[in-house]
Amino acid sequence: MKHLECSQSSLPDDIALKIASLLEVSDLCALGSCSRFWRGIYGSDCLWKSLTRERWPFSDLSQGSSSSSSTSIEIPISKGWKSYYIKKHNEMADRVAEVVEFVRRSPTSESIQVGDYLRAIDNLHSMQLGFKDVQLNFFNPKLNALLNLVGLHYCIKWLQVQAEKVLEALECSKISDRQVSVRWWKVGRRFYGFRMRDESHCCRVSLADLATERGDEVLGVLHRGAIHEVLQVQISVADCSCSPWFC
Q1: What radius of gyration do the chain's Cα atoms show?
Q2: Which end of the chain is more exposed for a tag (fewer CB within 10 A), N or C?
Q3: Are 41 and 54 in contact (CB under 8 A)?
Q4: Paired residues of 232 in beta bridges
Q5: pLDDT digits over 77-124, tens only?
Q6: Can you give the residue ranges of every domain in the chain?
Q7: May I ask the CATH class of domain 1-43?
């Protein structure tokens, strides 16, 4: 054990920090329990500052310095970046739980109207939720497909995460094959002065397809909501035993 401790402490700090910076937070915490040397690296302020900025890129996390911009918000990190990371992680989890509960309070847990659906996504945007937050809190196989879809939609339309990264995250979470059904009604077209019957459209599609061009039409309907010629949009969990189809 003494030999192991000596070999680790002989590593230059910059190399040890580089190694630590390549790890996920859960792996980093495990590394910090290996030895006194790695515990010191694990608690490094610069490491947690980088992790914080990577996870919440839209937040202004300046450390008490004056700013010339009147719109910037300064957050003093008085107890260190690790403490701030943990505090913000817990705050995000609490706020996300409110959104999850909001979606679950819809008339049925398996269906939701587009107004409530878009309100849930707007709440995520107001929180400045990062991609890692979505992976942790929404790409969860224990949640139903509607909540998975809320996180997916937010990643694509607001965070503009690349499709490859979204697909990888869906597959790692084992939810890529989950399906949702989207039904929308459009105002009937006019024909020789007469208005035809309102048109009903319905598509069942997997979460994986919604992350690619195959799902552009459905995701476009969800993003616009009930406006202009679209009278109503309803989203529901589809039967996963059936193959996806488009209409």
Answers
A1: 23
A2: N
A3: no
A4: 185
A5: 567 899 999 999 999 999 999 999 999 887 666 889 888 999 999 999
A6: 1-43, 86-237
A7: mainly alpha
